[in-house]
Structure formats: structure tokens, C-alpha cells
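Box 4.2: Ligand-aware structure prediction
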Amino acid sequence: MHPKDAPLRTLDTLTFDNRYARLPPAFYRKLQPTPLAQPYLVSVSDDAAALLDLDPAEIRGERCLNLLAGNYLPPGADPLAMNYAGHQFGTLVPQLGDGRALLLGEIINARRERWTLQLKGAGETPFSRTADGRAVLRSTIREYLCSEAMHALGIPTTRALGIAGADEPVYRETPETAAVLLRLAPTNVRFGSFEVFYYRRELDYVKQLADHVIEEYFPQCTDASGAPGAYEQLLIEVIERTARLMAQWQAVGFCHGVMNTDNMSILGLTLDYGPYGFMEGFNPGHICNHSDTQGRYAYQNQPYIGLWNCSRLAQALTPLIPAESCNAALARYEGAYLEHYAALMRAKLGLTTVMQGDDGLINDLLTLLAEHQTDYTIFFRALGEIGDIDRARDEIINRAAFDAWAARYRERLAAENSNDTERRARMHAVNPKYVLRNHLAQIAIEKATQKDFSEVDRLLALLRRPFDEQPDNEAYASPPPDWAKNIEVSCSS
Ligand code: AMP
Ligand code: MG
């Protein structure tokens, strides 16, 4: 990952280039983090540190702890809270912004990649409204572990360097432990970053933001001669990335929980982990967010909501793109989604060719899984096993229906001369054995609250290799225990 001849860095030798901070002041408010008193290190990720070329010893040192806690700013940092709006649960909220996050700055690593360093939970900002600007240990651990796990699953996501905790209480439903997460991403620009200026009719700023995003992250949009204009290409690119991300979420069984437009990354990254969940018993109507009483963000709605959110982005870009071009761009979403989803699902079944009837085979299997809420991850992993797929059959209660489906599946495999050994390897490379089940996170959180962080580190290491058999960790691939059925995750974080 790290170029061999490039020196490892310490926090005081990072190369900052704060492009966002050079945009007009309407884009942000500059301010310093509010330090956490007597912080302690909860966990740091070596993989994430490598993105910044940081020396592994550095991230376990005092300076990094002070960085996480908001007590130390590396030379070149220029902290700011980003301004944005958003559609929350379908309703426009014209003013949101980073109420508890601070963008410390942007670094350029040895591979010339840009990474923003952002503290989440670093204290009040001008955008905090009535909230406290803090984050709790529970939600920072959930975001930290899941963002690193999603990366290992090959799903675009923000990353996380580490967490600092402190004993000062933060009040949610009950007093909780305060914590700060250091998040990394090429940019934190969201759909809502455009919406804030569009709804204020500050259309020059919509253009400046689009120019910034194109120049920095979508340079290919400016140099395709004869192709539609750069802004239209940007919209097309974002729509296609969003469609592909939704396909990846659906295929792995990830539910985001709060798909508001302020949580939609312009880069098509999974952003802002709150009440997310991985599908356990397969249920298309599954709602992972206890606060989502209407089920707007239920699993089966995610692809449609992705499109709805893209429409809100297109609306905010109408000052730059003719309406008919916006509609043409949006019309690409469904095809992009369906194509990518079908490809991912065929891969989950170990199929290497496209044949008529594949969609039916996939849909009928999902109907079967839904009938008795079969564990999604366990089932697909078992289906990859060699032989007569008995292990997968054990997961299905309606054996006769499964046998009928399995006969079709075997026929389909035979039609492409599938070899079982190769199929197993292919399937195990795309069907994870380990995902971050709520109860696993919950156990790690409970231990961490008692200042035992070993389980956080253990999960971090486990989820770094989600597709590998890890014989010592077999129990982590089990379905949730009975007590875990009562875990409720909400927007409270
Ligand atoms: P979320 O749903 O977590 O993405 O947050 C929606 C909005 O609420 C964003 O503007 C956040 O910055 C803000 N917010 C959430 N929690 C807090 C908090 N504890 N303090 C200040 N602002 C917050
Ligand atoms: Mg958010």
C-alpha cells in the first residue's frame, strides 16, 4: 500500500493542502475543537493509518491520542465545520451543517491521494442547534468498526483512524461515555452541500462547489470532448456511483437506516453510520432504525430512496444543467442499479455467465429465504460449500421448496459446466463469512464501556478478513443469540 521508498510520517510531518478551506466562507465556519478532558485511547486502525503514511508507532502515541481528543492540531490543520442542508425523511431542512464534526484539513499522501481528517464529536459548532456537539462511545465504535468492515467487503465507504474516549458523561436516553472518532474520506461533500445553496438561491455557490468537486474528484468530466457538459457528466457519474453503491448494499444485506440527503456522499461512499444493520433473518421489509416508524428506509426501499436522493441532487444542480438533461441522467439510475445488482447476485450464486431465467432463479431464492427469515449471510456462505448443498438446505425450513429450487440451481450450474471446487472459491470470495452483527458490536461496546477495548480490536481484526475462514473465530459467524433480538438501534448517537 505504502510506496516502498516513501518515508513514514508522524503527525507533525503530514503534508496539508486544505482545498475546502479555501472556498468562500459561506461553505463553512472555522473554529477549534473543544478538547476532551483526560482522554484515553480506545482503538486505532493500522490500515487506516497507512492511508496517511503514518508510522504505526505514532498512532499509538500521546500525540495521536491528543489529536483524537481535540487537544492537538497538526501543523497545517485549519479546522472548520461544513455547511450543508438536507432532506430528512423526505422533508427539506434548509440548514443543517456539521453540528459535531470538524474537518481538520486535507492531506496528500505519498500516492498523491487526498484524505480529509475529520473529528466527529469534537464539541459544539455554529451548526449544533440545540444538541451538544458530542458523540458517545457506543456510536463511535459502531461507525469505526463498520466503516473498516465495509472497506474490507469491497464497498465504498469513509474510513476511520481511531477513537478516543473520556469519562465525562454525555446525555442521551441515559448518561453515556463521551468519545471522538477520527474519520477519513477523500471528501465529505454531500448532496446536501449543494442543496444548502440551491434553496438559498445562492446559485454562484452551487457552481463553485460543482467546479471544486469536478476539479478535485471528477477531472474526467472536463475533458471528454463531444460528450455532454461537465456538470451533466458529474451528475451522471454521481447517479451511477449511487446506483452501484445501492446494489452493493442490497447484495451484502446492509441497511443504512438514515438515507437523508445530508448522509449521501457525492463520491458514492457509505457515509454517516448511525442505526445501520446487516440483514440477519432475511426480510425485505426489515427496518433497522427504531426511529424510522414509517419504514421509509427499510431494506427493500433503499434502491428507490437512492434514486429519490439523486433527484434531489439533480434539482439542486438545475441552475447548471437543463431540466431535460437532469431527467436523462436520472433515467440511467434504474438500469445501472439493476445491471450491477444482477451481476453481484449472480456472483453470489457462483455463476460466471448470463443466461435467461437468472433473475427468476435469484428472486425465487430470495422469496424462499424471506418465507422463514433465513439468515442471509449464513445461507449464502453455506451455498458455496461443495457437494449437494446440504448445509444450505439445513438453513431452509421449507425443504421441499428448497429442493425444487436447488434442482433448478444445479441445472443452471451444469448449463455453464460449473466446477464445484472453483465455484466454492469464487463464492467464498464474494459471500462473507463474517459481518458486523449488532450483537457482536454490542458485546464490544459493553466491554469498552468498562474500559476493556480488546473486543473492539478483535472485531477490527476479524472484519478485516470477512471472506476468510478463521477457525478460532467460528462463533462470530453464528446467528444472533436470543438476547440480541431486543437490541434496538435508533438515531440517538
Ligand atoms: P445525522 O442524522 O447523525 O447524520 O445528523 C443530522 C444532523 O444533526 C447533522 O447536522 C449533525 O451534525 C447534527 N447532529 C447530530 N448529533 C448531534 C450532536 N450530538 N450535536 C450536534 N449536532 C448533532
Ligand atoms: Mg449526518
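In the box above, the bound molecule is adenosine monophosphate. The longest helix spans residues 230-252.
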